[in-house]
Amino acid sequence: MERALKGDFVAIGKLISVLEKEGEERRELLKEIAPLVGKAYYIGITGAPGVGKSTLVDKMVGFLRGEGYKVGVIAIDPSSPFSGGAFLGDRLRMQRHATDPGVFIRSMGSRGALGGLSKAAPYVAKLLDACGFDFIILETVGAGQSEVDIVKTADTVIIVLVPGMGDEVQIIKAGIMEIGDIFVVNKSDKEGAQKLTRELETWIELGYKGASWVPPVLMTIAENGTGVDKLINALKGHRKYLLESGELEKRRRKRIAEEISKAVEDMLKERIVKNLNKEQMNLYVDLVLNGKRDPYSIAEELVNNLY
Ligand SMILES: Nc1nc2c(ncn2[C@@H]2O[C@H](COP(=O)(O)OP(=O)(O)OP(=O)(O)O)[C@@H](O)[C@H]2O)c(=O)[nH]1
Ligand SMILES: [Mg+2]
Which domain holds residue 164? Predict the structure, then answer.
């Protein structure tokens, strides 16, 4: 723990493995880091596969490093069941930061037999926060509820779209557009970027009438860094808005409340599972099938028997 707080990447990596497993040990670690958490600024960046999120993150990291900030990046890879090693795209995209002690990059799988490793992402973000990183960037493709939930833990959510993919429609369907604080039209070197930007602006104009924060739409070319300075400015503008309007505190309060509920849920589940093996479960199922019991009175009994 001490070594991790001093910025030892190997030590941080070991603590991340602890955070990836549900249970007592994780809870103890989270208790330990809790007093140190709350200084970092959390950025969520999401968009369809291949829109250039990692390239953009790489450029943002470069920019923030130039200003002297330490940056932690957590990339959720929906296709990988594994965690730990950076997946190919990110490794290539963010390689130039690999030897920088002020940049920590971690990739986490979100699929696979173990299921939902990425659920640990918000905990990993907290750890990096505790370890003194000023900005924590969470990259996800925003597919599926668990990914949306992760992005929602960010203070500022950036949604990346590209021209010529019809992404806007896909993302609106997934209900992700609504959580965007800043919209980025990346690959604006390609045809249709202006059109997409205008479409987004119109959509925002209609949907955000009278809102205290109207999301800006920015054009970038992540590959050569065009527009990244404007993106960082927009980010800082949003942070300023959150601070001055009291919205940051509101968001953080909501997050803490969710965290408490989640911890209660996890603990209850852990204890119930401990008391309920497969055979016992089968006995209950038999009782329900035979019409002798119902699932709800059984659940009540299990919860009541816990204490
Ligand atoms: N033309 C053009 N290509 C870009 C731009 N930004 C990124 N790319 C390319 O788009 C491809 C995907 O970039 P990534 O940064 O890996 O995209 P990603 O959104 O992180 O992809 P996933 O993590 O797999 O979802 C790469 O080949 C990049 O070089 C851009 O502004 N213009
Ligand atoms: Mg990526």
Answer: 2-245
Quick: pLDDT tens for 8-49: 999 999 999 999 888 889 999 999 999 999 999 999 999 888
Residues in CB range of 35: below 8 A, 6 or more apart: none
Determine the residue of 223, 226, 230, 231 to mutate for testing ligand 1's pocket, defined as the one with the most ligand atoms within 8 A of the Cβ atom.
223
Residue whose CA is at the smallest distance from ligand 1 atom 32: 187
Summarize pLDDT for 64-95 with one digit per residue, the tens. Answer: 999 999 999 999 876 544 444 444 555 556 67
C-alpha of residue 251 to centroid of ligand 2, in Å:
26
CATH code for the domain of 139 = 3.40.50.300
Bridge partners for 83 per DSSP: 108
Q: Which ligand is nearest to the CA of 224?
A: 1
In a domain, 288, yes or no: no
